[in-house]
Specification:
Chain B: InterPro entries: Centrosome-WD_assoc, Quino_amine_DH_bsu, WD40/YVTN_repeat-like_dom_sf, WD40_rpt. The complex is a heterodimer of chains A (613) and B (510). Chain A is mainly alpha-helical. Among the domains of chain A are: 95-219; 256-292 and 329-361, no CATH class. Chain A is 81% helix and 1% strand. Chain A has 19 helices and 1 strand. In chain A, helix 6 packs across helix 8 and helix 16 packs antiparallel against helix 17. Chain B has 510 residues and is mainly β. Among the domains of chain B are: 9-132, YVTN repeat-like/Quinoprotein amine dehydrogenase (Methylamine Dehydrogenase, Chain H), CATH 2.130.10; 134-264, 7 Propeller (Methylamine Dehydrogenase, Chain H). Helices cover 10% and strands 41% of the residues of chain B. In chain B, a hairpin with a 6-residue loop joins strand 7 and strand 8 (86-90). The two termini of chain B are 18 Å apart. The chains are: A mainly alpha (613), B mainly beta (510). Chains A and B meet through helix 5, strand 1 and helix 6 of A and strand 8, strand 11 and strand 14 of B. Strand 1 of chain A pairs antiparallel with strand 8 (86-90) of chain B, so a sheet runs across the interface.
């Protein structure tokens, strides 16, 4: 028991060692103790154990018992109960402290022992239950083994039976097959028999028929006849022909003609079909070549590729293709070429497509992985973003709800206004954006406007220059005509003087070609036209005094066309009544008016020119 | 659609033969032969024969009508142009089992009893030709479409032969034996250059011969079990459809004479692309007595709505919207009475007598199949009827084991297009000779029409039951003759524009 304990419980090793020591000692001790007990207490045997133990130490044997205990204790390693002897002769004194110490130690030991015992007992119990469990398991497993063994035997038996069945079925199948064969043979034999019988019967039947035929037909049956009122003409209007060898030949001819026609028709159809197929083929080939040719360079770079040669073939084929005549050749001559080239191209195309496929799959795979990684990041980001948005939205909703609640407490009108306000917030932003856009547009417009006005000014200058030219020309004419008022010539002079002054402003315009001017006139900006209207009174004087006055009315009409009605009307009225006066009077008033007036008159003149013829 | 009726109570119509040019339905009433106008059914001619007429046939040019009196062994021929002209052919003691016109309309081919011989009688000359050893089989005589040649199945010394004769002078052109056990039928291709010959049902074998007697090809789909049941050429001679007892149609091409495809007729249809029209059973029984003479004013109101419904629900395209009209012939009526009656009836019949429509069934659809009796001869299995549409685009078939269904196949795509399942067994179907339009009858009071646009059924208006046993198209495709046991009626399929004029005519005549 002590051994077992040391083995099983290493945790208590030190103690157990001690205990084992102790127990081993105790093993011996009982005998000695017993002997001593026997020796010491031989007399009170009748007494119980307790009394016996209590009788261990008596008055008489204190010394002995002490010495015995001392001995015992020393053997167990306890310090001696006696004081250290100073001399041999002196009797050793009992050391009470030591005794007490020993007692205490013994008690401690006792407690320890008890504890250990308890532990051991519980362990024992545990182990016992474990043992039981294991035994149960063992029994169960044994049972299982037995059952599985039995099952196995059963299955084996079934297997055997099935095999047997299978064999039987195979046999049956074989038999059935044989049967089928036999039946087929029977059917065949019966069929032959039937056919034979049928033939026999048919022969008999034929004989009967023949006989009947003879009987019925050869009797000169009067009844067999046709009564016709009068014979009718043939459907085709022809007369029946005699049967001769000729007709036979003709019939043959006709038959062959029909057959030939049919075959020709079919041939034509087939040819047409062929032609269409060829067309398709050709187109396919062309497309293939055009599809494959861009890759020519690539395979060329990889010179070791066999495709290079093939592509050269393609080129040849392409060359061939251009000769359309090859397609019209009979298939036999072209067939090989055609099929070969098509096959080659097809191979290239196929390899190309496969390559592409591979690439695509690779890319797809890689891409997929990349995408996967990216998508996760993206996903997270996205979710974060979305969450943020959601939160914002929620807040918005909250505030709105609060607002609404506030509004609910307030009056209806207030709510509507507030609601409007909350819409306005959104709208305001939108409006701001629009406003900025609008501003930009305005800026642009202004820019354009400025450029237009510049252009108009330039045009005005140009016109002035032109008018000057014209005036000079007119002057020359006037001079040539010689019969003229002094005043008029003065006018012209005056005008020319003015024009001369205006000419100073931009001499560059003056040199501009005339052709460019007309298109400026209709595209004149409103600014320009307004100037025109102002200066209109000046126009008739500049244009021509030499020409008839009827022209004036025309000017006015034209001016009406050119100007806004409100502005032009008063001018018109005034001008119509005092045309010439105005013209003279107004001219010196303003240079600018004159300048633009010149331009306007030029425009008018130009228009007039257009109108007059 | 309008109907024209011919009512002969207690009389029987054996056949109405409709012909190419005049399209005058001729009907025979025991001894009498009545020829009517195809538009009005007015009697044009009336002939009296010697005995009960058992078979009538128009000549190709519609000038003559042949009446066969098989019991007496007599054939009587009548001329439409000259009513006094007549011709009587007596086969005497040899008897008569079949009589037919030659394509030129001037010769009559009479088959004597026991198929002893075929006598060719000429109406132009006194000449008579005899053809010996004709074979008694399903389809032993066939003329090419141009009427030039006649192919004839013969049987001598227990072997099958085919003779090709020139119809103009009845001279033998070719004579060859066919590699068949028991030749069942022969049929020219519409182009007249290929002859299909097939063996009896005991063996699946079809042989194709050129006009000059060369064997072009042989086709055999399987062995041992029952073979060919029906054969049909496509109008372009491009395809040969062979229906057999295994419930399949095999289509051969005209170049290699090999099979292009095989159409099975399964009892369940799973493909959702296939349109299955099922005749609806919910139609209330029609009380025609009530409908036939409705008060005209009352009729006009509610009927318009139903008419619109009819048009809407019918699948025909707009310009083909069917108008249903009825005119009844009653000999005793005066003209005015007839007109009034006709109008009333028109109003009545515009309402489709019972708007029984085919509902489009959703797949999978299982069709009603018959269990064939294995112990009987001529079992009800296999493809009993085949017909190509005139434009070669469709093939209509009927499987005898699924007698209520008509299968319509798309020949361009070589697949099943539609299945029409009727309530009762399909008796007969025929394609419109001008367009892809199929008329079907089931022996009931309705005629069914199918076109690629859809399917429609029309109740034949009239008193009592009109059991449509067979249908026959007018060559123009405008009208349709419906035959019952002892009545026949004409059904006009008119476009809307045509209604007015046709109706006017009707009024004049009735």
């Amino acid at each position: 028991m002590g051994d077992w304990m040391t083995v099983t419980d290493p945790g208590l090793s030190s103690e157990s060692k001690y205990i084992s020591q102790y127990t081993s000692e105790t093993k011996m001790s009982p005998s000695s103790l017993y002997s001593q007990q026997v020796l010491c207490s031989s007399i009170p045997l009748s007494k119980n154990v307790h009394s016996f133990f209590s009788a261990f130490c008596t008055e008489e044997n204190i010394e002995q018992s002490i010495s015995y205990l001392d001995q015992e204790l020393t053997t167990f390693g306890f310090p001696s109960l006696y004081e250290e002897s100073k001399g041999k002769e002196t009797k050793r004194e009992l050391n009470i402290v030591a005794v007490l110490n020993c007692m205490n130690e013994l008690l401690v030991l006792q407690r320890k022992n008890l504890l250990a015992q308890e532990n051991v007992e519980t362990q024992n119990l545990k182990l016992g239950s474990d043992m039981d469990h294991l035994q149960n398991c063992y029994a169960k497993l044994k049972e299982q083994l037995e059952t599985s063994r039995r099952e196995m035997i059963g299955l084996q038996e079934r297997d055997r039976q099935l095999q047997c069945k299978n064999r039987n079925l195979h046999q049956l199948l074989k038999n059935e097959k044989d049967e089928v064969q036999k039946l087929q043979n029977i059917i065949a034999s019966r069929a032959t028999q039937y056919n034979h019988d049928m033939k026999r019967k048919e022969r008999e039947y034929n004989k009967l028929k023949e006989r009947l035929h003879q009987l019925v037909m050869n009797k000169k049956d009067k009844k067999i006849a046709m009564e016709v009122l009068n014979y009718v003409g043939r459907a085709d209007g022809k007369r029946g022909s005699w049967r001769t060898g000729k007709t036979e030949a003709r019939n043959e001819d006709e038959m062959y003609k029909i057959l030939l026609n049919d075959y020709e028709y079919r041939q034509k159809q087939i040819l047409m079909e062929n032609a269409e197929l060829k067309k398709v083929l050709q187109q396919m080939k062309k497309e293939m070549i055009s599809l494959l040719s861009p890759q020519k360079q690539k395979p060329r770079e990889r010179a070791d590729d066999s495709t290079g040669t093939v592509i050269s073939d393609i080129e040849e084929d392409a060359g061939e293709l251009s000769r359309e005549s090859t397609w019209d050749l009979s298939c036999e001559t072209v067939r090989e070429q055609l099929t070969n080239s098509i096959r080659k191209q097809w191979r290239i195309l196929k390899s190309h497509v496969e390559k592409l496929d591979n690439q695509v799959s690779k890319v797809h795979l890689e891409g997929f992985n990349d995408e996967d990684v990216i998508s996760r990041q993206d996903h997270e980001q996205e979710t974060e973003k979305l969450e943020l948005e959601i939160q914002q939205c929620k807040e918005m909703i909250k505030t709105q709800q609060q607002l609404l609640q506030q509004l609910a407490t307030a009056g209806d009108d207030d709510t509507t206004s507030l609601l409007r306000d909350c819409y306005l917030l959104e709208e305001k932003e939108r409006l701001k954006e629009e406003w900025s856009l609008f501003k930009e547009q305005k800026k642009n417009f202004e820019k354009e406007r400025r450029s237009f006005t510049e252009a108009a000014i330039r045009l005005g200058l140009e016109r002035k220059a032109f008018e000057e030219e014209r005036a000079s020309w007119l002057k020359q004419q006037f001079l040539n005509m010689t019969t003229f008022d002094h005043q008029n010539s003065e006018n012209v002079k005056l005008f020319s003087a003015f024009s001369g002054s205006s000419d100073w402003d931009n001499p560059t315009v003056h040199s501009r070609p005339r052709q460019k001017k007309p298109h400026g006139a209709p595209s004149g900006s409103p600014v320009c036209t307004s100037k025109l209207t102002k200066s209109l009174p000046a126009s008739p004087s500049t244009s021509d005094f030499c020409q008839t006055r009827s022209c004036v009315s025309e000017y006015s009409s034209i001016s009406v066309l050119n100007t806004a009605p409100e502005e032009s009307k008063p001018n018109q009225v005034g001008r119509e009544c005092t045309n010439q006066k105005w013209s003279v009077a107004s001219r010196p008033d303003s240079q600018e008016g004159c300048c633009s007036g010149c331009s306007s008159t030029h425009a008018d003149a130009h228009i007039e020119k257009d109108d007059l013829p | 659609m309008s109907f024209l009726f011919s009512h002969h109570r207690s009389m029987s119509i054996y056949e109405a033969s409709l012909h190419l040019q005049n399209f005058k339905p001729a009907s025979c009433v025991q001894y009498r032969l009545v020829v009517r106008d195809a538009n009005t059914l007015q009697i044009c001619q009336l002939y009296t024969c010697l005995d009960q007429i058992q078979h009538i046939e128009w000549s190709a040019d519609s000038l003559f009508i042949l009446c066969a009196l098989y019991k007496r062994g007599l054939v009587q021929v009548w001329s439409l142009e000259q009513p006094e002209w007549h011709c009587k052919i007596d086969e005497g003691s040899a008897g008569l089992v079949a009589s037919c016109w030659s394509p030129d309309g001037r010769h009559i081919l009479n088959t004597t009893e026991f198929h002893l011989r075929i006598t060719v009688w000429s109406l132009c000359t006194k000449s008579v030709s005899y053809i010996k050893y004709p074979k008694a089989c399903q389809q032993g005589i066939t003329f090419t479409r141009d009427g030039r040649y006649l192919a004839l199945a013969e049987r001598r010394d227990c072997k099958d032969y085919v003779s090709i004769l020139v119809c103009s002078d009845w001279q033998l052109l070719r004579h060859f034996d066919t590699d068949t056990q028991d030749l069942a039928g022969i049929e020219w291709a519409p182009n007249g250059c290929v002859l299909a010959a097939w063996d009896s049902c005991l063996e699946y074998k079809i042989l194709l011969y050129s006009l000059d007697g060369r064997l072009l090809s042989t086709f055999c789909a399987y062995e041992w079990s029952l073979g060919i049941k029906s054969v049909a050429w496509s109008p372009s001679s491009q395809f040969l459809a062979v229906g057999s007892y295994d419930g399949k149609v095999r289509i051969l091409n005209h170049v290699t004479w090999k099979m292009i495809t095989e159409f099975g007729h399964p009892a369940t249809i799973n493909n959702p692309k296939i349109v299955v029209y099922k005749e609806a059973e919910k139609s209330p029984p029609l009380v025609l007595g009530r409908l036939a003479f409705p008060p005209p004013r009352a009729a006009a109101g509610p009927l318009s709505s139903t008419e619109s419904e009819w048009r809407q629900r019918s699948h025909w395209d707009g310009h083909q919207a069917l108008q249903c009209r009825l005119a009844r012939r009653s000999s005793g009526n005066t003209a005015s009475q007839g007109r009034a009656q006709g109008q009333a009836l028109c109003a009545a019949a515009k309402f489709p007598p019972s708007p029984v429509f085919h509902e489009v069934a959703s797949v999978p659809v299982s069709l009603q199949t018959l269990k064939p009796a294995a112990d009987r001869a001529n079992p009800r299995i296999g493809i009993g009827a085949l017909a190509f549409s005139p434009d070669n685009c469709f093939l209509a078939t009927r499987s005898d084991s699924v007698p209520t269904a008509v299968w319509i196949w798309d020949i361009q795509k070589l697949r099943l297009l539609a299945v029409l399942e009727q309530l009762s067994a399909v008796r007969c179907f025929q394609w419109d000779p001008r367009q892809a339009r199929l008329a079907i009858c089931t022996g009931g009071g309705k005629v069914y029409l199918w076109s690629p646009a859809g399917c429609v059924s029309v109740q034949v208006p009239g008193e009592g039951d009109f059991q449509v046993l067979s249908v026959c198209w007018h060559p123009s495709g405008d009208s349709l003759a419906l035959l019952s046991k002892d009545h026949f009626c004409l059904c006009f399929l008119e476009t809307e524009q045509g209604v007015g004029t046709a109706f006017g005519q009707r009024g004049d005549h009735t």
